[in-house]
UniProtKB/TrEMBL annotation, chains A, C, F:
Name by which UniProt lists this protein: Exosome complex component Rrp41
Primary location group: cytoplasm
Recorded coiled-coil stretches: none
Family: Belongs to the RNase PH family. Rrp41 subfamily.
Length: 246, 279, 246, 279, 279, 246
């Protein structure tokens, strides 16, 4: 049983939302959903819903704050006040500051920032509904918004969180599993390159559990990657079609 | 402190001339007539984890409202009433002009316009929210989240607020031994909306009045007037915006047009959520 | 009766402070009251007392924040901590932020800002005592401080609030009438040009009441305008006299 | 963090020389002698809606103090005492150098100098303000509002504070059933001022000591010394200001002059408000 | 919002090449082998007035942790537990890159990494700190103060936190009649540390893994991995840092090295404060 | 007896920590204690411990905020959260803002800022443990950190606080004496020049007591000055020796 003494997996190995331990939640994705942004994406993992928008490359900062050899990334991970179980003040929390940093560092590993010296690329992420795995859903969405904005990247980034609940590893944890479980391990990578760009562990795992959790997350990330690519392909096809029609 | 905006895009004179010459023949840049509104799309209950919510599009403008009902302490001078809190965030993904940070004067103004229209008409039965009068009441947090700014944020926010509040369920709070309100399973019922109130905005460009202005129309307008109405046509709030002036006759005409637009909004809302007409 | 159930008008139509419904409070005005400011004005409507000061046109902002074709206006409406019934924290409230905006927009309609490109004109307003109608008193005072500073304007601005209490429209409401009444409608205009620069309504009015309230306010604004002009004329006369004496 | 001011007007050397050569013959730019103060004007009860107030001019310097007496919670280590809160705002209409925003180091320093002089002399009977000792006490909010800065803000603030507090009435608060203090009609009495304390500032320019310095004199001075006194001549606070230094002999002379000036202030105050001399 | 740092010193390519060519032959700029840590110096109880403290040097990096145990209110969802608050300040005297002001993202990240490692392992018996469950509990304020930044602040902070908490005494608080916790003379005992947890950081530079990186090594590294361990080798937290990426094999190797380093830290800590080995 | 009714001096004139009225606490000093700063000093008066560091002269501010004829001083006096009896929030208090100002003004009197136009000299002071006299200990430490940084000064600055407890003047008061006493008078000077750079009085003194307190402080400051000079001399000797050894 978890921290709170809740039974989160039943005798048949089924989780509270009916999933098997290694099963993802239903995933939905859309890009180009906002008019003003250069690129945008709306991504849901189950009830967790994240909207990401990209502005730039643009001249947003005074020259002395830019870099002569590449673009600056500004990343904001932010939760809507109504996204959480209890209303969250819109002022950024320490957690949001930390997650903005780890998400920025992850994105920096993928973007060819050297193509846009002296500019700024802004990536704004709004968690509209939070039900576990918000930072990994955010990275998946942010990376697609960058693709939608046409910003060259080494690879897309996809992420997922693996958890440990009632002593068992489970994929893509939801909030109940996160708060009642023993560990939450968000992982994000550039799947085609096999490069891990985000790795955190909040909780305790043995060395063997950790290795197993890495394997589970990498496998799931590859599945998510396929959905990302299909979504972008569909969008591109639709745009081409619309252009033809005009 | 309020400062003349220096980052607004300057609309070139030639563009303003084009807009005006179109208006002269009863047309607008997007093909609408002067009194037409853009396509309205309303999705109630967009955020499952909130107690009430609505996603509203007016053309490309997108506003999401989420409502949370939570325990709080009453105002000392109104000990037996719950509290309605209206907050607006112009998050930076909505416009290249929005910067991250605390709300600016435009966000505060918008929130306060919406807030006043509901507060002054007593649209919400706040007495019903006094769980323990004088001690513990429920606070209705109405958070307006602007997701894409293509003009007329006030009307989109007013529609989304009305729909979200009309669909708000009141969680089941009970007082425990230590005197805290604790959330139990399920809901106690829905928020009682005694009156429906909406706000409609009209812009004056040259000598023309246009309904539901786009962002570009806002920049070239002399002034805007947002007027709040209850369904029976009572004026329930008003705000002139913009650095220009209006004559008495302008105001009459603009209030008339705002009322016409309000009726369209009420109709869209009824269609979307099946609100019965007010008695 | 009003919101609070208070009787604010008696059977003879007389208000709690002894006024008739369409009667202004005693108004006093003075200009040039502060030494340092380029212009200043002290205006009272009954117990509501507002001090306004103007600094500029001056180079107050970094060049990239100014405008190439006109002056920037910076307006601060601020209430002294001791001005209100309960002490007010000196930190600006949302209300003060909103009122600073609507006052700025009103003043922008009157000032020939295009005469002073790349400069800043600061208008600082301090409510010293608040007894209803502070924003309209502020506009009256700010406009006179601009005149005292010699800044060219299309016209002076004068303002007044009309209210509805116990079902009746009353002119120039005080705080008791505002908090106990059904509506507060502040109006400000350039009286000689017939141009309305500020219009707000907090409360409910029928269409007919609204039209009547507009008429009441316009009539009163013209009275206030006369006092403004007389005050400036007297000041100018006094200055000329003093110059002669020297 | 405190930073060397870079926006202060630079007083040209020639102007400083003029000031010094005038001082040599016992004169100042405005015609005063070195130990003279400017004209003091005191208007008690300037703000009718406050519980106490005073508007004070010293020459062109204008300071308004308003006092509000309101309910609050006592400090845990002084459960049976009310609280005196001294706050100062250098609002931007008072000087081209003042910017809107929270108080800067000069405003904090001024407030703390005044606060210490009253606190350390126990000038106010704080025990009298403990409505319900340990639970609810009254807080005396003394807000210093600088309206025009023409030098010597500290002395003007000290005079205005003393007059405002001397004229402060204590509202009639009673505890209600829920344990809140509620304001009733009328006043319970006046604030008890057991001791009168004043602060006088002397500037050193070259080898000269001048009383009640103007803003220009402050800029050219080597250092200033503000000294607080009770009426019997006890020193009740001291603060050296400015980026220069003083010798032991300077300090003796400046304290002597500050005491002379204090007596003038006490006399002005007595005239203005008819305070009886201290027993 | 998180922004790509633009003030970090750019390490010239030639310097990075030198570092890499040294690593190729198993050496580092300061003479260490790749898996070596710098000299660790631990002074427990450095701040006499705190309830627990430790000054830790790793090479030239200096971190001071002070612990204060004070009354507070429990979290509503954990009414019978005390609270551990971990805060980090990167004060400006520690580095030319640190500016005065509220903590930045690096300070928050560090504090949260340390906090999670202790929180998730339940290293501190928080129930013991519930003086009056549901009402009043004790809060353990663990303030991390960085005094000189020469790299690897996380490990130095982890060591200093563990030593300070292991040496923390619990003041003797009693509830008075008004329901406040009041501090009495003496101590009630020492904080119960049920598990010891440490964090070790490994940097990847080129294809090499180095323990206890210096500031310069941090700048040239591709990524860093901080891994928290309890004494039995359980992983109790992990954080990848830096704008580069790692492969699966890197991570295994880096966790292995981090565990080796952790054992050295545990050993240094035992020597310094004579902690008995965990059962 | 003092404010709190505590007996702080016994019948033999001995203070609660065993000192005589005119006796300093044990003083310890060290310089060059931090690697990164240009200069640093660690100074203790009894349990009061202060660490000071100097960065600069450097180009830290935008050009328009610097001075054409001299260096800007930026001084921060800050207390560690664990330095005080009750934990102090790290956000700067009004007291810390005021003390930063008086310490800056004191240092400005000693530093030859005109040697470094257009630059900034930063002096960061952290009170690690507070037991009375923190501002004077801070000035002593800051001045030594400046010396350690090689910044030319007219003279070192040394400071001490004199207090009045149970009606008697006492030198170098500790916290118990400060909070239980009748007066706290911090004094700092350039001892060799006889120039007083900091003087404050918190509490009440007669004119005679004040003069006596000045004398006590000046005498003690000269003692502290000797320790400062000896510490710097030792450091310099050690450095020279180390250089020889290399």
């Amino acid at each position: 049983m978890g921290k709170t003494g809740l039974k989160l997996i039943d005798e048949n190995g089924i989780r509270i939302d009916g999933r098997k331990p290694d099963q993802l939640r239903p995933i939905s994705m859309d890009v180009g959903v906002l008019k003003n942004a250069q690129g945008s994406a709306l991504v849901s993992y189950g009830k967790t819903t994240v909207l990401a928008a990209v502005y730039g490359p643009r001249e947003a900062l005074p020259r002395h704050m830019t870099l002569p050899d590449r673009a600056i990334l500004r990343v904001r991970y932010h939760m809507a006040p109504f996204s959480t179980t209890e209303r969250k003040s819109p002022a950024p929390t320490r957690r949001e500051v930390e997650l903005s940093k780890v998400i920025r560092e992850s994105l920096e590993a993928s973007v060819f920032t050297e193509l846009y010296p002296r500019t700024t690329i802004d990536i704004f992420i709004e968690v509209l509904q939070a039900d576990g795995g918000t930072r990994t859903t955010s990275l998946t969405a942010a990376s697609m918004a960058l693709a939608d904005a046409g910003i060259p990247m080494k690879d897309l980034i996809a992420g997922v969180a693996v958890g440990k609940v009632n002593g068992k590893l489970v994929l893509d944890i939801n909030e109940a599993e996160d708060s009642g479980g023993e560990a939450d391990m968000p992982v994000a990578m550039m799947p085609n390159l096999g490069k891990i760009v985000l790795l955190q562990l909040n909780g305790t795992l043995t060395r063997d559990e950790f290795k197993e959790a890495m394997k589970m997350s990498i496998k799931a990330i590859k599945e998510i990657y396929l959905i990302q690519k299909q979504t972008l392909r569909d969008k591109y096809a639709k745009m081409t079609e619309e252009e033809k029609e005009e | 402190m309020s400062v003349t905006p220096s980052t607004y895009p300057l609309v070139p004179k030639i563009q303003k001339d084009t807009i005006l010459s179109l208006l002269e023949v009863g047309k607008r840049a997007d093909g609408r007539g002067l009194e037409d509104i853009r396509k309205v799309k309303i999705i109630p209950n967009y955020i499952e984890k909130s107690d009430g919510s609505a996603l509203v599009n007016i053309g490309d403008t997108v506003v999401l409202v989420g409502v949370k009902v939570e325990p709080g302490t009453p105002y000392p001078d109104l000990p037996d009433e719950g509290i309605l809190m209206v907050n607006a965030e112009f998050v930076p993904l909505a416009s290249p002009l929005f910067e991250p940070g605390p709300p600016d004067e435009n966000a505060y103004e918008l929130a306060r316009i919406i807030d006043r229209s509901f507060r002054e008409t007593k649209s919400i039965d706040l007495k019903e929210l006094a769980v323990q009068p004088g001690q513990k009441v429920l606070v209705v947090w109405n958070d307006i989240y602007v997701l894409n700014h293509s003009g007329n944020l006030i009307d989109a926010s007013a529609i989304a607020t009305l729909v979200a509040l009309a669909r708000t369920k009141i969680p089941n709070y009970e007082m425990n031994e230590e005197g805290y309100l604790v959330k139990k399973e399920g809901y106690k019922g829905t928020l009682k909306l005694t009156k429906k109130v909406i706000t409609a905005t009209v812009a004056k460009i040259g000598k023309y009045y246009v309904a539901d202005p786009t962002e570009e129309e806002e920049y070239v307008s002399d002034a805007r007037l947002s007027v709040s109405f209850t369904e029976d046509g009572t004026i329930a709030g008003m705000q002139k915006m913009g650095a220009g002036s209006l004559e008495e006759g302008d105001i009459d005409a603009m209030v008339d047009l705002a009322w016409k637009v309000s009726q369209k909004y009420f109709s869209e809302i009824s269609t979307a959520i099946g609100l019965p007409p007010q008695e």
